[in-house]
Specification:
The chain is mainly beta. Helix content is 0%, strand content 60%. Strands 2, 4, 5, 6, 9, 10 and 11 form a seven-stranded mixed sheet that branches. A four-stranded antiparallel sheet has the order 1-3-8-7, with no helix packed on it.
Length: 123
């Protein structure tokens, strides 16, 4: 079993900051990439940021320069530092891990999701 547990969401005023954390635990052989997605009411889930082995990152254009993704491989944890928050950043934020679970063949990678954490930015 693999679990992703998120924390750090909440209510903040526009211009403020929040830091999200997500830790993967369970029967994990290795983690290829970890990332954050978000889903606002009435909208599709969208990629916010991803960080791969070796540290390469990608960001949605809407968050570039404001959000920073980082990873602690020893703790199987990914962080999302969100600065200069805007009301349009309001959404449920989901953690995603692309990983090789124990008991599967070499090269088997699967996506696992956290339960989501609400971020609300007031104007």
């Amino acid at each position: 079993q693999v679990q992703l547990v998120e924390s750090g969401g909440g209510l903040v005023q526009a211009g403020g900051s929040l830091r999200l954390s997500c830790t993967a635990s369970g029967s994990i052989v290795s983690i290829n990439a970890m990332g954050w997605y978000r889903q606002a009411p009435g909208k599709q889930r969208e990629l916010v940021a991803v960080i791969r082995n070796g540290g390469t990152t990608n960001y949605a254009d809407s968050v570039k320069g404001r959000f920073t993704i980082s990873r602690d491989n020893a703790k199987n944890t990914v962080y999302l530092q969100m600065n200069s928050l805007k009301p349009e950043d309001t959404a449920v934020y989901y953690c995603d891990a692309n990983l090789h679970p124990l008991g599967y063949g070499l090269g088997s990678l699967y996506h696992y999701w956290g339960q989501g954490t609400q971020v609300t930015v007031s104007s």
